[in-house]
Amino acid sequence: MTRLALTRRNLMKVLGAAGFGAAVASTVRSDRPALAAAAAPATEGLGFAGKVIPHTGAPHVPATIVGGKIVEPQRTIPTMHETDVLVVGGGSAGVMAAIAAKRAGAKVAILERYGYFGGLWTGGMVLVVIGTHVKDGNEKKKVLCGIGDELLERLKKIDGGIIGQAAGSHNPTVDPEATKYVMDEMVREAGVDVFFHCWGADAIMDGKAARGVVFESKAGRQAILAKVIVDASGDGDVFAAAGADYTQWTYAIGTVHRHGNMDRVDKEKAKEAKDSGRKLPPLGGVTPIPSVTWVNTRGPKGDALDIRELSKLEMDHRRKIWENLKTIRETPGYEKVFMLDTAPQLGVRITRVLAGAYTLTYKEMREGKKFPDVIAVGGAQGANHREWPIPYAALLPKEIDNVLAAGRCISVDDKLLDDTRLIAACLLTGHAAGAAAAVAAQAGCRPRDVDIAKVQKVLREQGAYLG
Ligand SMILES: Cc1cc2nc3c(=O)[nH]c(=O)nc-3n(C[C@H](O)[C@H](O)[C@H](O)COP(=O)(O)OP(=O)(O)OC[C@H]3O[C@@H](n4cnc5c(N)ncnc54)[C@H](O)[C@@H]3O)c2cc1C
Known about the structure:
28% of the residues lie in helices and 22% in strands. It has helices at 8-17, 21-24, 92-103, 147-157, 176-190, 237-242, 267-275, 307-330, 362-367, 417-420, 423-443, 452-461, and strands spanning 64-66, 69-71, 79-88, 108-111, 133-136, 139-142, 161-162, 173-174, 193-195, 199-206, 209-217, 220-231, 246-248, 251-254, 257-260, 285-286, 293-295, 301-302, 338-342, 347-348, 352-354, 374-378, 388-391, 403-405. Strands 3, 4, 9, 10, 11, 12 and 24 form a seven-stranded mixed beta sheet that branches. It has a four-stranded antiparallel beta sheet with strand order 16-17-15-19, with helices on one face. The protein has a three-stranded antiparallel beta sheet with strand order 18-14-20, covered by helices on one side. It has two domains: 79-247 and 352-461, FAD/NAD(P)-binding domain; 252-348. The protein is an alpha+beta fold and 467 residues long. The longest helix has 24 residues, at 307-330. The structure holds flavin-adenine dinucleotide.
């Protein structure tokens, strides 16, 4: 056994490996001379090649216990960035909002807690886009137009989705990695400032008006100031922090997963098993990869803002998924099926829903009620009913200014939630929120005072269908 001499260098090594380095060292330093920058080792362990990064900024003052209570010191939060429009959340709604606002001429930043775009669509592996079309007499009419449609078309070009077959009859189904990539490219081309790995933690308020967002990252707590903020977090994190009125729901929470080797199922043996009455757990639907299927999971109702519940569900779902896989693999013909992946994001359908300046109802949706402030037209599962306009006021908080909601948390009644949370609708309300945010920021007005005709003009110019 080699004994390690307890020099400062060795102590730092041990503490560093245990994750304590930053607490005791004033700088983090390399043990060996850096390797030549060009050397890209084919294997790990060829020599540490890091460089010392000097600490900058004020020293961190941690929370302390005062009189048995945990107290955080009052502190000044550094402003990391300033922008016209800040989008919080890079899911289907947030990405559309950011691109729309930037194309409309605003300076735009997007903040996302993970390291990729798409939210539930990609990270939640909800691959099937429902609500792209409506019934129009005996025809099916496309209502997902504009930036969302452009994204699907770009996916089609790189074989990143099953898109456009018998338009409106089949829901487009995408590959999550292709979608992340195309979203990256579209956001990059638009020129949006991207901040991944940042968790929007608080709103910065000036009375009833939001002025920006405080976020957490590995670099600590920082702020981004903005004229208008689009809350595309899905959970209404920003409007809730800003003090807007909302309803909080429990809803079914599942974990989507994918099976591989589905093209290697022995069909004859599988038929025999089926004929003998053998029951199989869900095998999943088609994806753009022929050997892969995706399995949707409904799951029990839960409060997706409760971390204990979320943690339990993550583990319960994975256990159940592996039990199902065991049953599948024990079935003659299915021996080669394997678990490709479980979605890195839990399938949270609904949490906070804005109680906005206007609450769109299911009845109004079924009637196709028209609104002068229409900013999008919603589609339907299987294009089984007529088009339904979505009013701008459903994105606006009642009292709080400079915040717009987009995606699954916009202001609708409980019966309509199952339509507005569909991906096509999230793409549409995100697009609309981004365009409106840009127009308001450029006019220097509150989003509630924005010239709606101007917003509609921008949306039409960007290809949106408004009825
Ligand atoms: C299991 C399941 C199955 C579904 N099936 C279908 C289906 O078949 N077809 C269909 O059309 N729809 C389906 N849906 C609904 C649809 O997937 C979602 O409603 C839609 O993708 C939501 O988009 P969004 O952009 O509003 O929110 P999200 O996709 O939730 O995006 C929010 C983004 O914000 C980020 N974020 C959240 N909080 C913060 C924060 N504080 N700071 C920074 N970033 C933050 C998240 O990481 C995420 O990227 C399903 C949903 C689930 C859960």
